[in-house]
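Give me the 3D structure for Alpha/beta hydrolase.
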Amino acid sequence: MKLLGLAVLATAILAMAFRAPDRSLESLVARWAPPPSDFIELKLPGGQTQLVHLRDEGPRTDTTPIVLLHGTASSLHTWEGWVKTLSATRRVITIDLPGFGLTGPSSVGDYSDDAYGLFLQTLLSELQISRMVLGGNSMGGAIAWQYAARHPRQVAALILVDAGGLDVPGDALPGALPIPPWRVVHELAGVFLPRPLVDRAVREVYGDPSRVSAAVVDRYFELTLREGNRAALAQRLSQRQPGRYAALLPAIQAPTLILWGGKDRLIPPAAAEVFHRAIPRSSVQMYPSLGHVPQEEDPASTVSTVSTFLHSL
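Predicted structure for Alpha/beta hydrolase (313 residues):
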């Protein structure tokens, strides 16, 4: 009985320490959506509306803007280093995808690749973008290459950064873990979120964990607490179907730059070669010391490669 009492006490202490209730959008905007952040109400094909947090930076005279898509559990902030450089001469649009960042949960409750592709098509139509350079990291990379294959006239060039969408499991790929459909698990996930766990997860996706600052961990932690995002993350992971659309890769017509972190433990560097062999007009740049989010870990080096690629088009 004494051991049981101690266990209950320890559980109660941990619960108090790691209790992290949802945060309202309004409470997060001041810190995470300063200008030039904007919010739009996007009307979806089924009649529903989706709140979308985005940034549209650089010269509006650029007729072929750069559109960048983040990965799972991330946000448009992951591209800030690239945008700072690219927006000096190019129009750059970054988006919080449904389920993440300040956009919040999908209004249709669908987090499949197909749903994200339809969302992107609808958003681009709303923004009156008929041709673009499309880029993405991780999950965003999967959405990008599938879109490029299906809409070749819209994509002038493609940039894949440690892209997902293939059935190439890494050492600790979160999406490879089954998400139990039990209601209690989802309810607990909506109440507790240990910040040390978030800190560790972020360090795992960097090649050099010492590059992770407290501000970066704050961002991942606080945006995950945005109302509805934790339940959306669980749904997204349960709806993943790696490799389902791999047969589309040879249909990609756009010149493609493949960037990869050599220390990526989520999607191994071997996946870069799979993309390279399958996409006709592609080239690969490997960064041996970087991890799964090289655009965030070392924006200066990675955006330099992107600028050279864009100038070569």
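Residues 1-18, 172-188 have pLDDT under 50 and may be disordered. Let me know if you want a second pass.
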